[in-house]
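FORM 7B - TANDEM STRUCTURE REPORT

SECTION 1: FIRST PROTEIN
SEQUENCE AND TOKENS:
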Amino acid sequence: MDKSISTSIRTTRKKLLLPMTMTAVSLLSIVILSGCGNPSPNAAEPFGGNKTANTAEAMVGASEQVQSLYKQSCLSCHGNTLEGRVGPKTNLQQVGERLSKEQISKQIASGGNGMPGFGTKLTPEEIAALTDWLATKQ
């Protein structure tokens, strides 16, 4: 084969390698991420959450302060309806049945089992307010 043709083929391969690699990575990302997001309305709750609960029902008994604290510090992992988003133990719909007030307070303040502690981010009064409300979830 002619040396100029061989060089031309190698140059073409190099030019195509990056776009082909980027396309493959993009397609793989789309496939992986397609499983993320909101489940369909008919999908079963993955962590035993109440399918019929709504945000208003979940927040029953919570003062405005507690609702604000929950939205700022808890919602991303525990969900709008307390259903839990990152594992079965993050479901708070009946946390007062599983844990005592002292255990709830300690979990909020110190964290553990994958949960960060909020003892340095929330005041003792804020932790107590969240604890009192969560303890009623039975």
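SECTION 2: SECOND PROTEIN
SEQUENCE AND TOKENS:
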Amino acid sequence: MGNLGNFTKGQSVEGMLRQQMEKKEYFDGSGGKSPPRGGGGGGGGDGFGDSEDGGWGGIIDETAQVILATLGIIFVYMYILTGEELTLLARDYLKYLFGRGYKSVRLTNAMEWWESFLENFKPEESYDDKYWLEKAIINTPTWYDNPEKYRRLLEAYMESQEEEEDDDDNDNDNDNDDGL
């Protein structure tokens, strides 16, 4: 780069850059005076916004970076808001885990919260009925065998039994009347 001693209070940064361009003083890291490659319009590919890989790999890489950066910002924000509380909770948990302490109120509340949170993801308990298949078969109507048919047969049988009992009672009553 050019001599920085030439930069005085009266000269602006823009003026200094213009002067370097007129003298063709370019900084390329090797101390030479070769002009920068790629021109001035960003045609180089060394820019910060350019991706190393223009295909799917580059897209996935940039997406992963954005997601991780977002999560990082969220965790830093959470730490700023509740950092001291989280630090104390972590300390209580480690003491409890290694057996040097007891469950603090803070740790108990956190464990209860996680338990209720995880309970939402637990599948419902089904009560085990060992006759569930038989019940499903019996209660399923088909074109040749309907449970209603058996109900009607049972009702008819019960009515016939009642009629026979009534007839037997009437016969017994009639027998007793004849003997008087």
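SECTION 3: OBSERVATIONS ON SECOND PROTEIN
The chain has a mean pLDDT of 77.
The chain is about 60% helix and 0% strand.

SECTION 4: SIGNATURE
Preparer initials: ____
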